[in-house]
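Hi all, long-time lurker, first post. I run a small reading group and we've been trying to get comfortable going from sequence to structure in the token notation. Rather than ask abstract questions, I figured I'd post a concrete chain and ask someone more experienced to write out its structure so we can walk through it together at our next meeting. Sequence below, copied exactly:
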Amino acid sequence: MFSSVRNIYRLFGIARTLARHDALFPLETAEIAPGLVRAAKLLARKETAGRPGERLAAALQELGPSFIKLGQALSTRSDFLGDEVAADLSELQDHLPPFSGAEARATIARELDADMDSLFQSFDDAPIAAASIAQVHFAVTSEAEEVAVKVLRPGIEEAFAKDFELFQWLAGMAERTRPELRRLKPLEIIRTFKETVRMEMDLRLEAAAAGELAENFSGDASFRVPSVDWSRTARRVMTLQRVGGIPIDERQALIDAGLQPDEILKKSAAAFFKQVFRDGYFHADQHPGNLFVGDDGGIIAVDFGIMGRLDKPTRRYLGEMLMNFLNRDYRRVAEIHFEAGYVPADKSVEAFAQACRSIAEPILDRPQNEISIARLLSQLFQVTETFEMETQPQLLLLQKTMLVAEGVGRKIYPEANMWFLAQPLVESWMEDNMGPEAVIAEAVAEVAEGLRRLPKVVADIEKSASVIAGGGLKIDPKSVLGVMGTQKPRFQITSRMYLLVIAALILILILI
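-- Answer (accepted) --
Happy to help. Here is the structure in token form:
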């Protein structure tokens, strides 16, 4: 009860801030606490300059760190807020006033259990960047290595925990009062957002992300990641090799340095493809401030707090969907969604194919350099309500990353399109991972894994049988009837199962 009263009080304060910026529309759309929203609108003095998304971004910036992060997360939800508002939120700047160098030094000494003089020859008290969760200082280690030291804001964990309690309360209210919003999974979105931020607040995890990405591009000079100084890294402190270069979106500076923008875009497109399709692990915060170009034309990435993962089935779905959209095979695009289980089986494939055509044609009819695959995905997510397609959080993060990458690509080389540059790579990857040989190889691997686990399965069956024989297990007659056919069968014979059988026979012959 006390928690609800506290949340209502806080919501009223937030609503007044939103009302002052004439940005109450998210609460109005979700129909959350309409009486409270009306009262806030009456009491607030409006400052209404700018587009709706710009006004919402300004209000969130004023509300503080958690709301800035929430706004950035909502920039993926064009299905809820619309393209223009989502695009404006994607520009939300994560900049806050810095905390003092003395506080940063104290945090470093405490976390690393050492005095600053033993760790660094020099340490710049003025940070080079200050964001909602942490800020970055340049320093020189006791071994004379130039580094960048990231330090968490004091008290940031407590501040976020209080705000997440409110966010979850609001999401739960939205699901209770607006059942039609449940397919958008507001509670799951907030939980995912909470987990993402929790990981951002453990800088050891960010250091590990940098290390994993660096391993994925080991020996590839076209894309580099600064090395981690693990001896000066802890939960609230991370130390990386200091890197330099030209911000990737400064086209004229790149040209003045003798670099070719078209070659840089090719490298950028290839690096994005490798992260998403080859590795299933991608840098999900690729704004220009996090990407630089070195003297040799190689791309250098920094800030690994937000990373995305895609499993192999999702990568296959995504690759085949993108290729068929670009080839305008809308029937196949629709079939892929049904095969992936994203659209319920009782919906019409033909109707979904028609919807895909209505989305894609206006986008694909534009000049090649203006085609936006991120916008295409965004609009696809918007029309899915008709077909009861559930939100796919992992694809929302990718769609946001694609949108930012496209914007950077247009600044580097406006005449080209990164997706068409990457198309041969995607097609080659799909041939290697979806062709007959790949399917058979995977089926053989699955059978081999099944054989490896067979002794344990047999042991579990024997254990269950002994429990039944001893009278320790009661069987519900209804469940027996379900198995006998009064419910939908749990297993269906598919072409994949036939392949598995064939692969098993091949493996048995090899073993014999």
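A couple of things your group might point at:
The chain is about 60% helix and 10% strand.
The first helix runs from residue 2 to 20.
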